[in-house]
């Protein structure tokens, strides 16, 4: 009996030692898993800086990039187009440059391309050919719309300055205006389908001022759009070439 009790004690003692030896290891493994879980939570809470930069790069004012600019371009382009056709209805003799509905149509087309960009899923660094093509087209059309709006502002301003200096005479079917009434060889500007020169000059002057304001606003929006697209395409390069100061150890190593 004594021998059997001794054997049982010897057999149980290694098991207890093994259990006591495994306990710290189990605690360590549990602690390591908890630490890794905590680190993952902290990373998720802080967020990856690369993904944060990507999210910020294609968002503007809390919305996806082209949405705000496309809405502004659509509103301004529609206003310019409608106002241009209204100006064309005043007199059939007005030139195309004096009724800049063409500038509004170009801005509306740019806005539609911006809405197409919203339908394309975002890929960082232009990993898709479709996204790169649409973005390049949006940039080029915005630049074209910028030039068209600036030309429309210039033509409207020139016509408005001439209108303030006109001396007009009403005829049965038109309104004839001259810059210098005393000059018999001076150029005569004829506005057909105008019953009254006074109402024509006042309405046309108001339309020209509105065209200058709307086209100037559209030009600024298109310029800002080009700037944002250009910065989003090349801002990674500028971030990469920033100056990084040396640490004390690196500076000491270079001096040695």
From TrEMBL:
Biased composition (Polar residues): 11-21
Chief place where the protein resides: membrane
Transmembrane segments: 67-90, 102-124, 136-157, 208-230
Keywords recorded for this protein, A-Z: Membrane, Transmembrane, Transmembrane helix
InterPro entries, per database record: CD20-like, Sarcospan
Superkingdom of source: Eukaryota
Record's GO cellular component terms: dystrophin-associated glycoprotein complex; sarcolemma
Topology term for the membrane: Multi-pass membrane protein
Signal peptide: none
Location in the cell: Membrane
Compositionally biased residues, Basic and acidic residues: 45-56
Region (Disordered): 1-56
Pfam families: CD20
Entries under PANTHER family matching the protein: SARCOSPAN
The protein, known as: SSPN protein
Organism: Sylvia borin (Garden warbler)
Taxonomic lineage: Eukaryota, Metazoa, Chordata, Craniata, Vertebrata
Gene: Sspn
């Amino acid at each position: 009996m004594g021998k059997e009790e001794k054997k049982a004690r010897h057999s149980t003692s290694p098991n207890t030692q093994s259990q006591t030896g495994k306990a710290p290891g189990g605690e360590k493994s549990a602690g390591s898993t908890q630490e890794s879980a905590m680190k993952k939570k902290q990373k998720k809470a802080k967020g990856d800086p690369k993904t944060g930069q990507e999210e910020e790069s294609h968002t503007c004012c809390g919305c996806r990039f082209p949405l705000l600019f496309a809405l502004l371009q659509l509103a301004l382009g529609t206003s310019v187009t409608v106002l241009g056709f209204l100006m064309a209805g005043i007199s059939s003799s007005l030139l195309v440059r004096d009724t800049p509905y063409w500038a509004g149509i170009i801005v509306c087309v740019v806005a539609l391309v911006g809405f197409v960009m919203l339908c394309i899923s975002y890929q960082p660094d232009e990993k898709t050919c479709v996204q790169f093509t649409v973005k390049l087209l949006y940039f080029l059309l915005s630049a074209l719309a910028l030039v068209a709006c600036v030309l429309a502002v210039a033509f409207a301003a020139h016509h408005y300055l001439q209108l303030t200096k006109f001396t007009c005479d009403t005829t049965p079917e038109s309104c004839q205006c001259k810059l210098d009434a005393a000059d018999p060889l001076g150029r005569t500007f004829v506005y057909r389908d105008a019953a009254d020169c006074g109402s024509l000059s006042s309405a046309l002057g108001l339309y020209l001022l509105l065209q200058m304001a709307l086209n100037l606003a559209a030009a600024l929006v298109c310029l800002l759009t080009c700037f944002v697209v250009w910065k989003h395409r090349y801002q990674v390069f500028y971030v990469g070439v920033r100056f990084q100061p040396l640490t004390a150890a690196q500076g000491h190593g270079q001096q040695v």
